[in-house]
Amino acid sequence: MSAPMLLRERAPAKVNLTLHVRGRRADGYHELDSLVAFAGCAADLLTLAPGPGLSLAVSGPFGDAAGPDDDNLVIRAARSAAERVEGLALGAFTLVKRVPVAAGLGGGSADAAAALRLLAQANGLSPDDPRLVDAAAATGSDVPACLRSRAARMEGRGERLTEVKLDPQPAVLMNPLRPVGTAEVFRALGLAPGETFVPPGPAGAAPGDPEAEIARGRNDLEAAAVRIAPEIGAGLVLLASQHGCRGVRMSGSGATVFGLFSTAQEARRAARALSAAAPGWWVRSTMLR
Ligand SMILES: C[C@](O)(CO)[C@H](O)COP(=O)(O)OP(=O)(O)OC[C@H]1O[C@@H](n2ccc(N)nc2=O)[C@H](O)[C@@H]1O
Ligand SMILES: Nc1ncnc2c1ncn2[C@@H]1O[C@H](COP(=O)(O)OP(=O)(O)OP(=O)(O)O)[C@@H](O)[C@H]1O
């Protein structure tokens, strides 16, 4: 008797090392230019037992916050793939939700992307299959980048991706466990459809050298998000005060903030100090790549 097949995938959190808003398109979405990387030590876990039907069981510290299972991005991605690939075998998913929800870490997008990778494996498809890439884009703006889960430049709404050679970045992630809605933050920028975004301050570095781009870049959603959740500002100050911190910024639409460090040891030490200094916050040291 053989055991039923169980496939596993990690769904690493996404961090926007830079996030530049170009403007608002006629369709209401914002045109972006963002360097994204992925966190080794902050990830959800997915399994798939291929078989008839489609189901999802969610557990883990943030399982309740992910919303009803039928609405979960895992199910939405699977349905989206099934619409595009005739005869696609689905099955029973489990999700252990360890990344905070509505946190600017693309947790739901990472889960959707991991579900597509599992379906690719179960059906003998490449995760780069254009039908799966199309299903990813239809599920959410961050899902195509999460499908690859490697450092990249993300342009447009997230559908244009270019690989970026990035040295692994020791980092600390901090989140106050206050959900911040992505749509609300974009709305707070106050751009009309068709309007160009004028960044405050100097332009960032030209594309080519990721280190310079990160050092001189911005997150154009940061000011709007701080108005909605002022604790983001407190998190940035706390992170910046840590020994060895090279720079701090918010990820995505917040409220997660990150600090970059020169060594993994400094990042781990800072994470220990911050866990004590900011009780109630989610704090992780990780390597971004
Ligand atoms: C902020 C980022 O996380 C940066 O990586 C993404 O742009 C957001 O990605 P996401 O969470 O997958 O977002 P989606 O689910 O596609 O969009 C949520 C909502 O955010 C707004 N939105 C999102 C992306 C974008 N480029 N412009 C927007 O205006 C829209 O109101 C949209 O209805
Ligand atoms: N698997 C999932 N994990 C997390 N949230 C999910 C999931 N499925 C659906 N959702 C819903 O999606 C919304 C956004 O959650 P998510 O954690 O992806 O946001 P985020 O980290 O702010 O994303 P971004 O960085 O793309 O702005 C939540 O309101 C949540 O209810």
Structural domain count:
2
Known CATH architecture of the largest domain: 2-Layer Sandwich
What low-confidence regions span 5 or more consecutive residues with pLDDT below 50? none
Percent in strands: 25-35%
CATH class of the largest domain: Alpha Beta
Kindly report the average pLDDT value. Answer: 95
Number of strand elements: 10
In short:
By secondary structure, this protein is an alpha+beta fold.
Q: What labels would you give this structure?
A:
289 residues; alpha+beta; Ribosomal Protein S5, domain 2; 2 domains; 6-stranded mixed sheet; 4-stranded antiparallel sheet; 9 helices; 30% strand; globular; binds 4-diphosphocytidyl-2-C-methyl-D-erythritol; binds adenosine-5'-triphosphate; transferase; GHMP_kinase_C_dom; Ribsml_uS5_D2-typ_fold_subgr; ATP-binding
How would you describe what is shown here?
This protein folds into two domains: 7-163, Ribosomal Protein S5, domain 2 (2-Layer Sandwich); 169-288, Alpha-Beta Plaits (2-Layer Sandwich). The chain contains nine helices and ten strands. It has helices at 73-84, 107-122, 130-139, 143-148, 182-188, 210-216, 222-228, 231-240, 264-277; strands at residues 7-24, 30-51, 54-59, 90-96, 152-156, 160-163, 169-175, 245-250, 257-261, 282-288. Strands 1, 2, 3, 4, 5 and 6 form a six-stranded mixed sheet that branches. The protein has a four-stranded antiparallel sheet with strand order 8-9-7-10. The mean pLDDT is 95. Residues 66-67, 72-74, 101-109, 111, 142, 182, 252-253 line the site of adenosine-5'-triphosphate (ATP). Keywords: ATP-binding, Isoprene biosynthesis, Kinase, Nucleotide-binding, Transferase. One of its GO terms (biological process) is terpenoid biosynthetic process. InterPro entries: GHMP_kinase_C_dom, GHMP_kinase_C_sf, GHMP_kinase_N_dom, IspE, Ribosomal_Su5_D2-typ_SF, Ribsml_uS5_D2-typ_fold_subgr.
